[in-house]
Structures are given as structure tokens and as C-alpha cells.
Amino acid sequence: MTTEENIINQTKKWITDVVVGCNFCPFAAREIKANTVFYKIENSIKTDECLYTFINECVRLDEDEKIETAFIIFPNGFKKFNDYLDLVSLAEKLLKKQKYEGVYQVASFHPEYKFANSPANDAANYTNRAPYPMLHLLREERIEQALEHYKDPEKIPERNINFAREKGIEYMKMLRDACL
Prior knowledge:
Layout: H1 3-20, H2 28-34, E1 37-41, H3 47-63, E2 69-73, H4 81-97, E3 104-109, E4 134-139, H5 140-148, H6 156-167, H7 169-177
Parallel strand pairs: 1-2
Antiparallel strand pairs: 2-4, 3-4
């Protein structure tokens, strides 16, 4: 198995065991089962090359309706969370500049994810702590469609935070680390 295959398999395990297993995203299981998730490894550590890959994945989504969502995984870059947040900000600006605002949405995941005003040891941070820094591209239209059929979607983040805190940081860390 190549290193890239291993990284993708670790990411898939994290999505299955953590995101779906903890029901952090109630819509993810359907896409996993339907095999409509695309995974792209970007080995570069240069921000401009990573953003080029990011926008190319938007184009891929434009061209292939069978792909519902895409993960761009950065196994070598953005190890520091603040550097990663800069990438997220630039990616969101690029979406606007390329007229993709309202078409695609970016979700962010990082091994050291920390919500604003949250202590680093808050188990709730593990709702977004992934094995690798990654950007998750979602089709906004599909999100809106899914939310129409979900009761109280605005309560999803609160429910996730409560779940993670009830399980505790040791459990959440073990669950994520078991994917590596």
C-alpha cells in the first residue's frame, strides 16, 4: 500500500469511526455508503500550490455530479493550527473570488483543531480534530436539501459538543488516534 493509500484509508476510518460513528454529521453516512466522497492528497507545503489544488477540486465537483463532497488532505503542510487557519481563510476568499460562494462550502479539520475561546483540552475540539489537516468541500445546494429534512439542524453543533464532553477528552483522543 502506498503512503497516499494509507493516508486516505486513515481518513476514511476517521470519517467512519468518528464523524459517522459519533453522528457528528448526520448526513455523512449516506455519502460514505453511496461512495460519493472524493479524496485528494496534496503533498505540497506551499500555500499557493495548495490553493491551486483546492480550486481544482471545485472544478472537479463542477464537472462530476457523482461526487457529492471532497476532502483535500495535507499530510505535510499546515502542522501549526494558526498556519492552517490562514489557509482556511485564503480558501474561503478564493471561493468568493472564483464565484463559488454559495456553490461550495468549506469545512475545516485539523489534528490540533481548537474552537475560538475554547481551552485546548476541551473534548469538544475533537469534533473537528482529524488525523491530518484537511479542507472539506461540500455542495451548498445538497446541504440545504439535507437540512430541509432534518429536525432542528441548528442544534447539531451543540449536540456534538455535548456528546464529546460527555465522552471526555481521553475517549475522544483515543477514538481519533485509533484511526492512525
